[in-house]
Amino acid sequence: MMKKKKITPNDADEPNSLDEYELTDDTTSQAVSINELTQCSTSSITIGHSVELEEITQRACLHLGDGTIMLKPGLRLDFDRFMRALHATNNQNCNQETTANLNDAFFSFFKKLIKSFHFGENDDTKNSHSFLLVFIENIFSNLSKNNNNYRYSEHVQLFAQSLHIFDGRNAYEFVRLNLLGAIPDLSTLDDSLGKTGTCIEEGIFRYNILQNHQKSVGYDIAVCSEDATAVIKRVSYNSTTNTFSGFPISLKHGIPCSRQFQTDSFDELKSCFENKDKTHYLNVHMVKPLIASNPYSSSPLLLAAYGINNNFKAIDVLNRWIWMFKNARQSNVRIVAFATDCDPRYLLAMRLATGFFWKN
Questions:
Q1: How far apart are CA 262 and CA 58, in angstroms?
Q2: Judging by beta carbons within 10 Å of its beta carbon (0-12, 13-18, 19+), is residue 81 exposed, middle or buried?
Q3: Pairing of strands 47-48, 23-24
Q4: Residue of 163, 304, 312, 341 with fewest CB within 10 Å of its CB?
Q5: For 347, left (φ over 0), alpha (ψ -120 to 50), or beta?
Q6: Which residues have C-beta within 8 Å of that of residue 76, sequence separation ≥ 6?
Q7: Is the pLDDT of residue 14 over 60?
Q8: Where in the numbering of this chain does the THAP9-like helix-turn-helix domain appear (predicted)?
Q9: Residues 86-94: contacts with CB within 8 Å, 24+ apart?
Q10: How far apart, in whole angstroms, are the C-alpha atoms of residue 92 and residue 146?
Q11: pLDDT over 50 at 115, yes or no
Q12: What pairing do the DSSP bridges indicate for beta strands 301-308 and 281-290?
């Protein structure tokens, strides 16, 4: 029987130390779990004798003249690296399990807290904090799920739509990235906005939305306002309609030509960027209902918006107003006046249209 080599606790910290193994006639083997491997620094390993073992020792060990075999230092270093990685993986798994258990306990406690608050709240408290409770509860519900399984209540979706409309894309993304699970991503938000009919396509007058608004609010007459505001020059792409927005739309008898910049050719798109100027102004049309019983209750409706380069004439404005007046009548809304700023072209169109709307 030969000298033996054991792995001791000191060996784990001394990769260059040379130990000895004992070769016996025991050929039995036993499966070792990860936890047993990670605890091997406190136990010895006995290697059985076989033909395969002799081949391994020939390759992995140095044989001395007195019958002692020494494990090659390079293999010992690899073994130490393996053991350190095994310990690190085991500790990481334990930490993850501990964190998951703490999260589950915290979520359970928070749900109980929400339920107890629901039972103890009065009418005033319910009206003041109802959305806050729904919002926080929605966040904790999503944190316990996979990212692809996030769900949002109706109130949270309405809040997300309002946040995107009032504060814009950048502010919305800032809130979403810092409050994980609080509000949906932009693709989900765009789908919800499309279903509610709040998405606006450039150059399209939403007379169908005007008709639905007229039925829900209950009015027959309205005032239409029009104004242009300066915007940052930028071209965007609408994948749903395959349309590029940001170039000034042409006016045909004062009416904007929608979906004018559609192309599948890169050369044509390149030509547009090189030869066409980008939009300087955004022209917006709003409709304000007139209700005698409560004139301040109803909010205005955004009818249309499109980019222009400020190259239009007073006759274009007049033709557009007459066309809008006729189409609004088909939606059961009578436009009794148009309001705008003091641009000379608008003022001339107003003078030319004097008496037209009240006569018709």
A1: 74
A2: exposed
A3: parallel
A4: 341
A5: alpha
A6: 15, 16
A7: no
A8: 129-189
A9: 86/34, 86/37, 86/38, 87/38, 89/34, 90/34, 90/35, 90/38
A10: 20
A11: yes
A12: antiparallel
Q: How far apart are CA 302 and CA 287, in angstroms?
A: 7
Considering only CA atoms, give the Rg of the chain: 38
Phi/psi at 179 (5° precision)? -120, 85
Q: 57 by DSSP, 3-state: which?
A: helix
Report in angstroms the alpha-carbon separations of 186 from 112, 189, 274.
Answer: 32, 5, 31
CA distance 30 to 40: 14
| Nearest-angstrom CA–CA distance, 207 and 214 | 10
Give backbone dihedrals phi and psi of 161, rounded to 5 degrees, phi first.
-65, -45
Residue in the structure block whose two tokens are 């300066």: 230
pLDDT of residue 12: 42
Residue 313 to residue 315: CA distance in whole angstroms? 5
CB 162 within 8 A of CB 146: no
Taking every pair of C-alpha atoms in the chain, what is the biggest distance, in angstroms? 122
> Which amino acid is present at 163?
L
Q: What is the pLDDT of residues 193-251, one digit of tens each?
A: 766 656 678 888 999 888 888 888 888 889 999 988 888 888 888 777 888 888 888 88
Per-residue model confidence as pLDDT tens digits over 242-287: 888 888 888 888 888 888 888 888 888 888 888 888 888 889 999 9
Strand partners for 133:
none
CA 183/CA 151 separation, integer angstroms: 9
Residue 195's identity, in one-letter code, is K
Size of the chain, expressed as the number of residues it contains: 360
Q: What is the pLDDT of residues 41-60, one digit of tens each?
A: 433 344 455 677 777 777 77
**Which residues does 79 contact at the CB level (< 8 Å), separation at least 6?**
none
